[in-house]
Amino acid sequence: MAGNKTAKELDKIVRVGEDKLHSLGGGLYLKKDGDANLFIFRYQVDKKANKISLRAFDGTHNTLAHARTRVLELKSKVKQGIDPKEEEQLELLEKEKRLKTLGKAKEQQEATFKKLAYETIQYLEHEWTNHKTAKQWESSLKAYAFPVIGHLPVSDIERKHVLQILEPIWFDKTETADRVRRRIEAVLRRAISDGLRAGDNPAAWRGSLEHRLPSAEKTKNKRKPEEERHHEALPYAELPAFMVELSKMDGMGARALELLILNANRTDEVLEATWDEFDLGAGIWEIPAKRMKGKVRHTIPLSEQSLRILRVASEHQVSEYVFPNTSNGKSLSQAGMSSVIKRMGRAGQITVHGFRSTFRDYIAEKTELDGSIAEHALAHKLKDKSVAAYQRGAMMDKRRLMMQRYANYAYQTGERVVQLRTSI
């Protein structure tokens, strides 16, 4: 090829040539800039000039001969109407796509159920009002889920794996099994949201497990004797007699249960109550948003009976908690109130949480009060925002009358009013 530079001529350009673009012949150039010596191929496709780098000159690995061989290959493509520059860019994009796919595959392999479970717990922890919930999640998943799917990438988990976890405990430990199912579902829902798995959630009840397992509620009720079914909540007609018996029980747990029944609380609202939440003079209990399930501050107008319980408890104050565990000064445990029900011989018939239903049924069936007032007392979120706005206005007065009426009903049997305890 006439006009082509020889290897010796190229060496001279590299050693002493001036910094500029040197033609080596045949469309091949050397761009010299100080110590940098870059091969460049210049060409035209559809009368449009372009250029492409052929990497830097190297006396061993990228010689003039190597560069000319590459130029011949590129000229062949140019004759076919292929732009080498565009082809190179497409190859780079394809390479990036492959690397991205490989990276995603690696990420999915590393995203095991155990890893995602701990991330889910950490993410949800700020929403939970009970600080024990995170430990309960962890312990149940460790016991039942991790041995089966903890090591598996979330993308590989199928319904058969979920059933392998649930079927051995669904009938004997139904409550636990249902909680485990819900927790697995939550972890996999997060995986789907994060793009770590595709398709349906194999732990979902609707459309999946409902076709293989009987409902948790039916399973629990079927296991109970007939006379014990559907009695989680105490019928309000039995409440006065129950309160007579409860008033005779000793201990912090019994007094905490009394306060819970009178104010239709959730368990943790009472167990973790601190003295700074109460204004006994004004008869008000302000539960901060952080302790409420709905994360909204809840104001409770206290009945005379509730105030009496609190005043007696204040005489025995040993910590910031209204109902402390006297052995360590912390709040009373979850078993504090349920153990009272057990001692009264009502375990399996009623639950602590069921007293909220007792209250709601009484208000609905035995009073003319508007249902929205009772919903406020239960700290349920009202859909009607205009109604909700009255909580701290006139509705507070109506709620105070409602709570007093309920307390009056609770502490009587026939015409006889139960005498409240004067000691813990």
Would you give an account of this structure?
It is a single chain. The protein starts with 6 loop residues before the first helix and ends in a 7-residue tail after the last strand. The relative contact order is 0.07. The longest helix is centred in the N-terminal third of the chain and has 27 residues, at 84-110. Mean pLDDT is 86; it is low at 225-231 and 413-418. The chain has 424 residues and is of the alpha+beta class. 48% of the residues lie in helices and 10% in strands. The chain has three domains: 7-101, Integrase, DNA-binding domain (Double Stranded RNA Binding Domain); 113-223, Tyrosine recombinase, N-terminal domain (DNA polymerase, domain 1); 236-417, hpI Integrase, Chain A, CATH 1.10.443.10. The strands form three sheets. The chain has a four-stranded antiparallel β-sheet with strand order 1-2-3-4. The protein is built from 17 helices and nine strands.
